[in-house]
Write a structure and sequence with these properties.
13-stranded antiparallel β-sheet, 14 strands, mainly beta, Porin, 14% helix, homodimer, 36% strand
Chain lengths: 277, 277
Amino acid sequence: MESPATVPALHPLDAATTLEALSDDRFQGCIPPAYANFIGPFGGVLAACLLRAPCMHERRLGDPLAITVNFGGPVAQTPFEIHARPTITNRSSQHWALELHQDGSIPLTATAVFARRRETWSAQEAARPEVAGPGHYPPIDSRDLPAWVANYDIRVISGGMSFLADSPRAQDSSETLLWARDLPARPLDFPALLALSDVFFPRIFVRRPTFVPVGTISLSTYFHADAGELADQGDAHLLCRARGKRFHNGYFDHSGELWGAGGALLATTHQVVYYKE
Amino acid sequence: MESPATVPALHPLDAATTLEALSDDRFQGCIPPAYANFIGPFGGVLAACLLRAPCMHERRLGDPLAITVNFGGPVAQTPFEIHARPTITNRSSQHWALELHQDGSIPLTATAVFARRRETWSAQEAARPEVAGPGHYPPIDSRDLPAWVANYDIRVISGGMSFLADSPRAQDSSETLLWARDLPARPLDFPALLALSDVFFPRIFVRRPTFVPVGTISLSTYFHADAGELADQGDAHLLCRARGKRFHNGYFDHSGELWGAGGALLATTHQVVYYKE
């Protein structure tokens, strides 16, 4: 008889994003308290759950290329259902409509595109920021932050949360540079990369010296890496950069980049965020 | 009896995006040949049609904040149906699931968020590029380009299509700066701004010296302007900038900005595009 000690424990991210297939198009999940945010679970882990549904679907074609997740209302720490429906399947791409249902409402909707790549002329136009390695920066202290932060090793290079400073003051730039990976370390895959694309704290926390209520409204992530590039990444830290362009009467945007250890731009990400001040 | 000459003609954009309500949640439209692209209609005008459905819906709350449109297959120049369903309505925001149905398939899906803004601390962080006015640049010659281009006054400042140059050669940067507005001029509103957010020719046409097949896969536009700012814009040219970050085995991204005459950042936009070379 096998001893329980020899059964490898699921990584917290895998435990949080495990889905049970209820039928071809319906999957059940539940986010544990370990990934709680201020209200409801961390958006990145919810997005990862939504992405896992087409990944598990028997009609899946190719790998994730793009996903947009819309956050309409809080998700409770109780079971939910994800409905995943392929709307059109072409020779090399496939479109998905996704919804998260809970207690008779639809707090989240999403669309995703999966695709097969073929070798073509390629070029990485953006330049990776030049910074010292993750060992040069201390990990963020997650003790006074929402539970989900403890599942990430986040090392801020510049542009931290202003209200955590000894003498908080307003900043002119919302740009943040940070290193991040799962904690404990975990090999990168598409759901983990998607969750990491939401690891940036809200840009208004960089600009403003005080805490204000915020919530992501819509998040889009484009995957530039293929599965091979993700496998090459292993569990190394990602270099992440984000900056907002306009804060206007309750809503701001940001655009972000996630760079791999070898210098490849693995993903770009964009979101629009609600704020109250 | 009123003379036909006194009835003002519909602007081509309004003619192309007119929807007829078939029921609360279903709308019929049809894109005329004037907005044709290489295969099917111009994506910007299809996106504008999709946005018009919730704008017309009796349950609409507030103004557009964000929309993502996914282009899964070609749309024919025949009537189509848009299905528009509010998935969740909060006090100040509303989420929509949108689909375009034609001939038994769903070539387009979209999600949109509408919102009411309230006055808060605001800041425009991005800097508007400093360029000479639209009168300093010649309008693009649309004669050898798809029909839709003739509905826009596009004046390239830098980063034009390389294959149109006298001696086409590869470029290191995909950045384009251009002035654009509807032709004939038309007061700006949300559908027109959304269509303009897709006015950038594909970034690979800037980088590469030859024409290659391309198609937008997914487009997300965030509206930073409220209806009052759009009204202030009138029919002035918008200053538009776009640049790609990575071209990788068949897919590239771009991020764009649309600046108003008064210097406000009216919208930001992102897309992922298929290419074959």
